[in-house]
Structure formats: C-alpha cells, structure tokens
Amino acid sequence: MKTVTMIMGDGIGPEIAQATMRCVDATGAQIKWDIQQAGTDIMAQTGTPIPDETIKSLERTDAALKAPITTPVGTGFRSINVHLRQMFDLYACLRPCKTYKGIRSKYDNIDLVIVRENTEDCYAGIEFQKDTDAANELIGWLNNHGNKKIKPDSGITIKPISVSGTERIVKFAFDYARANGRKKVTSVHKANIMKHTDGLWLEVSREVAKSYPDIQFEDRIVDNMCMQLVQVPELYDVLVLPNLYGDILSDLCAGLVGGLGMAPGGNFGTKKAIFEATHGSAPKYKGLNKVNPTALLLSAVLMLRNMGFIAEADRMENAIAAVIAEGKYVTYDMKADRNDPSAVGTQEMANAIIAKMQ
Ligand code: NAD
Question: For ligand 1, atom 17, which residue shows the shortest CA distance?
C-alpha cells in the first residue's frame, strides 16, 4: 500500500479532487489517501494558506496530487504553487498534450510534451516594488553601471537563468524523450534578444544535446514557436522551455488539444513529484459541479505511471478516452455547443469513467 497526499485546493479544486480520488480508487491501485488543505479556503479558517501539516504530509508520503489553488493578484500571499515548487525543488514541469478522439479541437493528431523549467526565470520571485528603497537603490546601481537608463518610476522583476538550472532541465527533457520512445527535443528561447539569459539557455541546450545522439535536437525562437504550433503542431515532439515561455505555451498547447480542462501535468524534483492540472481554480465555477475533471484525472494517470501502477494507469486512461469518445457523459466544455443541456456535471462524468472500469 502506498500513500498519496491529496491537496484539495480551493475554487473548483475540492470537487475535481473528489472526482479524481473516486476514479483512482476504481482502478484498484493500492493507494491510501492523505487528504490535506492549501489555498484561500484554509487561509480564511486558519490564517495560513499552507498549513505545516500539509508540508509534513508531502515530506512523508510516496507521491502527491494537487488540485488548483487561487493566487490573489497584487495582494495577499505569494503563489503557493510557486512556493511548493521551490520548497521541494520541483525543477521540471511535464505537461503532455495529446488529442483524444471526440474532443473539441481543430486538430486531431497532436502528441506533444512540454517540459517547463520550474524554478528560475522571472518566476524566481525576485521582485522590487516601485518606489521602495530597494527598488530605488537597484535602479541607481543599474543606471550607474549599464549603458541603458531605467525610469525611476519602474518596478523590477529579475530573470535569472543558470548553467546548472538549464543543464538539469534539458537533461530531464532528453531523458524523458529516451525513456518514452520520443524522437526529437526542441529547445525554445529568445536568445536573439536576451543574450545573457536565453543565450546561455541555448548554448547549454546545444551542449547537453551532444550527449544524446539518438535523439534529434533543434531550437526555435519562442514567437516563431507559437506560430509553428498553431500551423504545424505535428512537427513537434518534446519541447523544453524556460519557466515563463513554458507557462504560456502550456496553455497554447492545452488549447490545441481541447482546452484547459484537458491538460494534465506533473512537477518533478530529485526526490518528490507533485502532479496537478495545468488549469487554475476557476473561481467562478466553484461548487457548481460543472467543470471538466479530465485534466486532474490525467494528472493522476501520470502519477500512477510514475508510481509503477502501470496497468491501473492504462485502465484509467482508457476509461477516460472511452467516455470522451462517446461524448455523452461529458462536461459542458466538451460539447460542440457549450450551452448543450445534455452536458453532465463533474461527478457524473467521473461516474461514467468509473463505470467503464468495472
Ligand atoms: P483558470 O485556469 O482557473 O480558468 C480560466 C478559464 O478556463 C475558466 O474560467 C474556465 O472557463 C476554463 N477552465 C479552467 N479549468 C477548467 C476545467 N477544469 N473545466 C472547464 N473549464 C475550465 O485560470 P485563471 O482564471 O487565470 O486563474 C484562476 C486562479 O487560479 C488564479 O488565482 C490563478 O493564479 C490560479 N492558478 C492556479 C494554478 C495552480 O493551482 N496550479 C494554475 C493556474 C492558475
């Protein structure tokens, strides 16, 4: 029996978490859930968005699944998602984007994997608020040391990209490609403009690629990459990206395969992995039993595979694919018309998936 931390999150988190636990249980995987809280709901009750008990659970269990958590804009706590990634050094975010028969998409042949660096770049959390002493001091220093002037009324976000951080994420992408029968890794950057960060990223990517002669390697500038993904997504296989581009292109690729409700993910460190959907807490749908549970369900499939529950993972993915292909017991976002009254709720879609596994 293995133990899995289930972080219930907030917004639509608790309802898709419930649906997911029921589906995982129906696979027969020998899993004991350790249910924990994080986010705005628990913050309102206890004053902390991430209780110590949740962290202790993550430290002791075999794996973790996390439902989405709201990050209030501009005020309140810093992103718990970013905090957890940094705390457990979950440096690699893996987001497979695959078309399932029956989804609403202009494309029917997509099978891409996004590997996003999770700890560096503008997301490192090194920020200086406009008009603070620290911001003013930094602006003064930069204006004295560089040949470009920064306006005094600026806020500043720092973008660190390191050799070691780039090396490990590009290796992760190549190792994933090799272990999963993938043929090509594309490194995405804006090295033509940001020579000392993205330029370094590209140089290290090229260096790492030399150790994997069995996997093709190429690079793309991020803006061109966006256009290529919309026009010829079938040309791409595994994409490796710095944090910010990885975040944005994850949503773009989710759009190619039917929307955010379809996009799963996993965050990997050297010791721990936390699996979660690409989408957020969609607060306007909270408590309505309306949203698509598939992204978190497919994240659970990734988790089961990672834990060695291969047959159980296959059973669950096949059941999800069968329900989507039938198109009957699916949520509103998977119907041709989003107002189709025959759309079912989150729990009813989960019930249909469970029925396929029995
Ligand atoms: P969101 O992903 O929560 O929702 C955007 C829209 O996508 C929704 O309004 C809805 O139309 C659709 N959508 C999302 N999930 C869906 C689902 N399962 N089924 C059907 N439709 C779905 O993005 P947002 O509104 O920008 O963010 C809301 C909050 O979530 C913010 O506070 C943000 O910071 C946070 N967030 C959290 C995570 C995470 O926990 N990993 C990830 C992204 C955003």
Answer: 261
Q: How far apart are CA 40 and CA 72, in angstroms?
A: 9
Residue ranges making up the domain that contains 141: 124-158
Q: Which of 91, 100, 123, 332 is catalytic?
A: 123
Q: What local confidence, expressed as pLDDT, does residue 75 receive?
A: 54
Q: Measure the CA–CA gap between 61 and 63, rounded to whole angstroms.
A: 6
Q: Is residue 31 part of a domain?
A: yes
- What is the pTM for the complete model shown? 0.90
**CATH number assigned to the domain comprising residue 76:** 3.40.718.10
Cα atoms found within 13 Å of the Cα of residue 48, Cβ hemisphere only: 7
Instruction: Using the CB atoms, write b or e for 8-23: b if 16+ within 10 Å.
Output: bbbbbbbbbbbbbbbb
- Do both 136 and 234 map to the same domain? no
Known catalytic residue: 223?
A: yes
Distance from the CA of 139 to the center of ligand 1, in angstroms?
Answer: 35
The residue nearest atom 26 of ligand 1, judged by CA position, is: 280
Catalytic residue among 66, 98, 190, 272: 190
Per-residue pLDDT tens digits for 1-17? 999 999 999 999 999 99
Instruction: Give the residue whose CA is nearest to atom 41 of ligand 1.
Output: 68
